[in-house]
User: Fold Aspartate aminotransferase family protein from Komagataeibacter nataicola.
Amino acid sequence: LISIDRDHLIHPVSSWRDQEEAGPRILHSGHGAWLKDINGKELLDGFSGLWCVNVGYGCKSVVEAATEQMARLPYATGYFGFASEPAITLAGRLAARAPGNLNRIFFSQGGSDAVDSALRFIRFYQHARGTPERRHVIGLARGYHGSTYTGAGLTALAAFHRDADVPLSWQHHIPSPYAYRHPGDNSDAAVTAASVAALKAKVAELGADKVAAFFCEPVQGSGGVIVPPAGWMKAMRETCRELGILFVADEVITGFGRTGPLFACERENVVPDMMTVAKGLTSGYAPMGAVFMSEDIYTTIRDNTPPGVAVGHGMTYSAHPVSAAIGLAVLDLYEQGLLANGVKAGEHLAHRLHALGNHALVGDVRISGMLAGIELVTDKMTKHKPDAKLKIASKLSSIGYEKGVLFRAFGDDIIGLAPPLCCTIEEVDLLCDRLTDVLDTVRDDA
Ligand code: PMP
Assistant:
């Protein structure tokens, strides 16, 4: 398997050279928060796959729902007047749980095409309103919004821009609400005020009537788990209203209980104009994403498209019935106690990780529910990042694997954790014990 992998399988995101040299770690099976590789090694998954397997592995009800749907009707188009029962039911249940009037739902195949779809719907909306000159879209530094051309452009991570000619001419970024490295006063109020001022300045620079929308993740994930200050999202939402631009929440990671409630927007009673989700929607059991839009955006596009004229957007696997059946089974689990368990486990995780703040290598601990970032420094006073020569990221991942714990390293200085919401308190303890052990080994090595 390793030699076939080296010869044929492209591993995006990682360095292709390093990946070919190291070969893959091949996973075989999973149960709850646990994975087993093909050599039988047991691993505690502290990252829910890629922050997606929120319900944990091997959930019988999910597998049964998928199997039943696959046997009965594996495929139905969501276009040309057709639909499937699970897609309709899922849309209805999600609309009932969505913030405010985000009543209209488009199902995509994952997060990147949910973001890409949202950008297209925003374009349709601006045309429908007669304001096509509102073309520009603003995101955040350290933001991640996917790998399609438009998603990668809205992303502000160097690896996603290299040799790709993005961001596109209409995509812009303002600084991230990154308190730990915020220059000067880094109180909640100062960091929030800086973001509000940066958004206003960017809109003024581009032209007050030239900007369509502001996109943000309620907690920035792939940029290093940056948790904005309390009140930040509400302030940004209000600023967008004041500026007459749309506020879009990319909840691909934060949705479905990752930060506690079903959607992170609920934490501050924020109602975005649009919301994108994926990952926890089907908990990794099958691909699916979604765009939620307000009734106003939907009806504006609908009412300005004459009868018989198509709104040309959609993919073959949009609203896939098997994914939708999985989505329903997963939603049942969230509603039947999994969200509550995630909140309890998240409180314990916060308690354990804050204690880790005393570790010599730990500069900052950021946590929101079952989503955490640990920033490593070699000097707590100067906040000096570990030298790249120490190769901390690859050490962390190999030592972690050896000790039976999976997490994600962002660069050489940030560890991300996103354990399944089904974790018991004992599993959270074991995860933190193993992580501490990994950090001790890396410290002794450095
Ligand atoms: N938006 C955010 C906030 C994400 O974290 C991701 C994936 N990590 C995406 C969009 C893209 O989703 P996908 O990988 O499912 O295409």
Notes: Residues 110-112, 115, 144-146, 217, 221-222, 250, 252-253, 278, 289 surround 4'-deoxy-4'-aminopyridoxal-5'-phosphate (CB under 6 Å). The first helix runs from residue 2 to 8. The domain at 62-332 is CATH 3.40.640.10 (Aspartate Aminotransferase; domain 2). The chain has a mean pLDDT of 96.
